Structure formats: C-alpha cells, structure tokens
Amino acid sequence: MLYRPNPPISFTGAVLDRADHIRADADKLAELMNWRARLLRLDGLDPVIGDDGALVWGTLADAGEHDELVFLGLDESGRACFAPVSPANKGNPGPANPRLWGAMASLPAGDLATYGGARALVDWHARHRFCARCGYTTKLGKGGWQRKCVNMDCKAEHFPRVDPVTIMSVEWEGNLLLGRQPRFPAKRYSALAGFVEPGESIEEAVAREVHEEAGVRVRDVRYVACQPWPFPSSLMIGCHAYADDPAITIDKTELEDARWFTRDEVVYAMEALKTGAEDGAFIAPPPFAVAHHLLKWWIEQ
Amino acid sequence: MLYRPNPPISFTGAVLDRADHIRADADKLAELMNWRARLLRLDGLDPVIGDDGALVWGTLADAGEHDELVFLGLDESGRACFAPVSPANKGNPGPANPRLWGAMASLPAGDLATYGGARALVDWHARHRFCARCGYTTKLGKGGWQRKCVNMDCKAEHFPRVDPVTIMSVEWEGNLLLGRQPRFPAKRYSALAGFVEPGESIEEAVAREVHEEAGVRVRDVRYVACQPWPFPSSLMIGCHAYADDPAITIDKTELEDARWFTRDEVVYAMEALKTGAEDGAFIAPPPFAVAHHLLKWWIEQ
Predict the structure, then answer these.
(1) In A119, A209, B18, B186, which residue has its Cα 20 to 30 A from A36's Cα atom?
(2) Helix H segments across A127-236?
(3) Which of B148, B159, B227, B235 is most worth mutating to test chain A (most A CB atoms within 10 A of its CB)?
(4) Cβ pair B133:A129 closer than 8 A
(5) Which residues of chain B are within 8 Å of residue A195 when distances are taken between CB atoms?
(6) Which is it for strands B46-47 and B42-43: parallel, antiparallel or unpaired?
C-alpha cells in the first residue's frame, strides 16, 4: 500500500517547474532574466513572509550588485524565479531554529516547498565559494545548479548536496520506540534518525542507527515516506522496522532518552497536538516533520 | 511486500562493524592502529584482487609516509580495518570503468560492500583536500569520516557525500519503459535514472526525471530497493511507477533512445543474461546493477 499523506508532507508539493533544460542554456537564461522575473526575498536564510502569509517576491532590480542568482524554475505564468546569494551570506549548516517552525506551520504548501529548495541551494552556495579540490575560488554555473572552479588547471565541477538521512519507527509487540535529543522541547519524543553513510543501503543504515543509538536490533525494514529537509540539505527517508528484543541501551552522546510507548500513548500524543492536552506520556513530533507522518502511518496500520 | 533479493544486491551486505563510537575517540583509534590492523590494498581507486578472488589486505606498515588513513571498521576478529588516502590519489568523479565490472561480478558480496564503502570514502578525501568555505587546506578527522579546515578562523567541518539518485521501472499496460545512454554497450537498455535535487522528495524526483528524459507522466511511485554505488558516491534508490499515456518524447541530451518493452521481451532479456542468447529485443542490465533487480522484481509481481 502506498502511503498518501493528506495534507502532503511539508516541503513537498513543489509548484515551480524546475525547467532543468534551461539551466545549461545561457542564452535562454539571460532572456528569462527580464523585468517579469521574480526574486525571492530572504532574510539571511530565513523566509520573508507577507501580510497575506505567503512568501514575498521582488524583481531582479532588488538583487545586490554582487549577488549571484540561482534559477529556481518557472512559475505557473512562465515567469522565471530566482533566489539571491549575497556575498554577505555565510550560510548555516545548523538545524532549524524555533522562529522557522512558525513559518513551517503557516506557509502555504507550495510556498514552503519553494522556500525549502531555495534555502538549501542558497546555503550550499554560501558555504561552497571555494574549490574543495584545489582551493581556488569557484563561480556559479548552470543557473545555480553547479559551481565551477575558475582555476584553468582544475575546472572541477561541484554540485549541490542532498544528504540522505534515515528516520524510523521501530515496533515491538505493538509498542513504538521513540527517543529524545537534549535539544528537544520538554517531553518531546520522536523517531530515531541518522545519516546514510557511504557504502550502505537505506535498510543497513536504519539497522545500524537503531543499534548504535538504542542497542536494538531490527528486521524487515520498509520504506514509508520521505521529506526534503533544508537544514542544511537533508533528504529524510522515513522507514518502519520491527524489533524482537525490547532491551534498550542508550547511546548518551546521541540521545537523552529512548523508550517504548504503547499504541494508546502514541494515539493520545498525536491527538493532543490538536487538543492541546498536556498530560500525555510524551509530546509527539509536529505535523511539519516526517516523524509525525511515520507515527500517523503506524497508527493507521 | 518487502523485496528480499537473493543473492543480496551488490555493494550491500556489509561485513565490517563500522564502530561509529570509535571514530571520535582518538585514544581508542590510536590503540587500534597496531600490528594487527589491516590496510586495504588499492590500485588508485580500483581494488587489488588476490589469487583467491578476494580483496588483498596488508598491514599499516604498507601505508605511505604521507598517506591519510580512513577507519573502515572492525572485522569479525576485532581487527581495525583501514584504507589509505595517498597524496598522489587525485580521485575520480567519473562512472565505473569496464575493468571494474569484472570485480563487481566476481568479488565475494562482503568484500564488494567493503570495497564500495572504502572507494567512496577514499575518493571523497582525494577530491576534498581544501575547504569549500574558505579555500584553506583541510585535514582528515574522526577516523576519516570528516575533514576539518585548519584555518582557525573557519574550522568548518566537512562530511563525506552520499548522493541520492532515483532509478525507476515505469509500467504502462504491462509494458516497461527503458532507455539507453550513448555510453552503454550495444543493445543495452536500462531503467531511467537521475539525481534527487534539493527541495524535492524521492517521488517528485522520479516523476520529474521520467518526464524530463522521456516526456512520460507517472503516478503511484513506490520504493522497491536500493544500492550504494560508489562512482563516485551515489545511493541508487530503485522505484516503480505507472504511466497512463505511452507517448514518448526523448531528451536527446540525456538518452539515445527510450522504448516500451513487453513483459515477454523483458523476461527473455533477463534469461538471456544466463543463457548468453543474443537475439532478444534488448540486453538487460547486469546482475550487479540495481536496475537488474527492478526488472526482476517487476517480472515476479
């Protein structure tokens, strides 16, 4: 059964046409950089949100003299949409900040998808101005979907990163394994997660992470749903797995706690996000996180 | 239904314990760099294969004076396993070479998994000796799972890349859409594929790639299986999707051809890989490619 979240998972549901064929076409790209083109307004890496609750756009005239422009795609009217990479922008490889959580909850789905992609790209450019191969400077290429080394002996091409992360609901006899990181709000528990490493499959990464963080062995890993998560460039791959032995050994460098919750506790915690009840066993992950959908999917099974 | 390939998909089935907790423990790591430790022999980025058909290992005494060492993990005897990053190694972001195809077909599964992870890491180090943020040199950290900028005003941390790629079987009324790239051997057709970009889900990437490359719209994307593919650092995410309209428009910058094949043609082509028959409608992707497993899975449905 395919999981069809409704509403769609946050940061998915793109409304721009990425028009990939235009990126390498310098003439076409120049032609699209006209007075109709739209420039996404950013406050550093944060979105600028208008009185109507939507993203604010300007024109290319709003770009700084030394800004590099990333081509995000075409909107439904065929206008080219860009995001600015300001020389002052130093990027931020850190996690989402609480101020952004409001934006994630309130922005229209299409706007959030546009912002997520733009943020990941602008952040990548800001943190990749030099060539990792030779140390020379790089310049933006292919409409912002590449950086190219200006050293003619190198000419290395660099591409934006997307870092696959596994995040998993783990089940043992009708109970669900959830953990909390020290930086979580009080009582919040969520699905365990970790980066997929070179040389391993998604299923192997799930098994390794659950064992590393909680000392639990899992089997029958299956894919449930995914979410691009631009803090800074993750692709959250949501999976489900089963455990045969509930004994937990917590890796305290990663997690503050990890526990099994009953189905009733999970159901109550998910309902409590709507009712505002504060007396549950834990506080569930918010609707804009893929972990929320993993819990929702699990309850519905 | 979970797909359980037998034998497992190439490059999966790791036999080393990654022992992640050791990476950041400099004392423990130094202790493991003893006379029992094993050093993977590499010819540039290619594997060195012994008369027994397995990977060849040496000791740390075989490392070059200026080699950096990547900690791959612990073997079943608790010996630490390393791979060398030689200063002469310039890395290679290109695709697999025909000489490697033999190794992929012949190496024991565990060895191939070890080699794949090691190659991706060594290649990444070789191509990331400088800081993308400031241009200074970087040095290996966390046992080779990080590079850190030596510029004390920067100190940026860089991590090995894993690039998620979607690869998909697309079905229309019992037929399968396959394409061929100009660099393929004669008559070879395989599943379409493309990188997941910042700001999109796996399902969105599948739909975008199939439309870009073949002009076909798909629905009901589902995950089937995945494979780490170290040329240079891909995570191949195999999916299946359905099309309602068979009209094809080929993007000639990406594909030489794309066609629908009947179920019988796919079954024959997969059998022909074993029998050596050359009169099929096309030559199927080889067993070490995840595309092969997508076709196998589809036939078995």
Answers:
(1) A119
(2) 202-214
(3) B235
(4) yes
(5) 159, 162
(6) antiparallel
Go through chain B and tell me how many residues it has.
301
The Cα A109–Cα B199 span in angstroms is: 12
- In A, minimum Cα distance to B232 occurs at A198
Q: Is the dihedral of CA B109, B114, B119, B121 positive or negative?
A: positive
What CA–CA distance (Å, rounded) separates B242 from B220? Answer: 6
What residues have CB less than 8 Å from B211, skipping those under 6 apart? B217, B218
Q: Where are the domains of chain B?
A: 20-126, 163-300
Interface test with A, best of B162, B211, B236, B297 (most A CBs within 10 A): B162
CB-nearest to B199 from A132, A208, A230 is A230
Note the pLDDT tens digit of each residue in B96-142: 888 888 888 899 999 999 999 999 999 999 999 999 999 999 999 99
The alpha-carbon gap from B65 to the nearest alpha carbon of chain A, in Å, equals 21
Task: Sort strands A234-243 and A163-172 into parallel, antiparallel or unpaired.
Answer: parallel
CA distance A61 to B216: 37
Local structure of residue A209 (DSSP, 8 states): H
User: Does B11 sit within 8 Å of A199, measured CB to CB?
Assistant: yes
Q: Between B109-126 and B98-106, two packed helices, what is the crossing angle to 10 degrees?
A: 140
Which residue is closest to A221 within chain B, CA to CA?
B2
Burial bucket for residue A121 (CB in 10 Å: 0-12, 13-18, 19+): buried
Vertex A300: Cα angle to A294 and A301 (nearest 5):
90
Q: Which CATH superfamily is domain A163-300 in?
A: Nucleoside Triphosphate Pyrophosphohydrolase (3.90.79.10)
Residue/partner pairs of B30-34 with CB below 8 Å, 24 or more apart: B32/B71, B32/B80, B33/B60, B33/B69, B33/B80, B33/B82, B34/B60, B34/B80
Question: How high is the ipTM of this complex?
Answer: 0.97
- Name the residue facing B162 among A12, A120, A164 (closest C-beta): A164
Considering only CB atoms, A130 lies closest to which of B135, B201, B220, namely B135
For B12-125, where are the E strands, in sequence order? 38-40, 42-43, 46-47, 57-58, 68-74, 80-85
Instruction: Say yes or no to pLDDT of A282 above 70.
Output: yes
Q: What is the pLDDT of residues B39-97, one digit of tens each?
A: 999 999 999 999 999 999 999 999 999 999 999 999 999 999 999 999 999 999 988 88
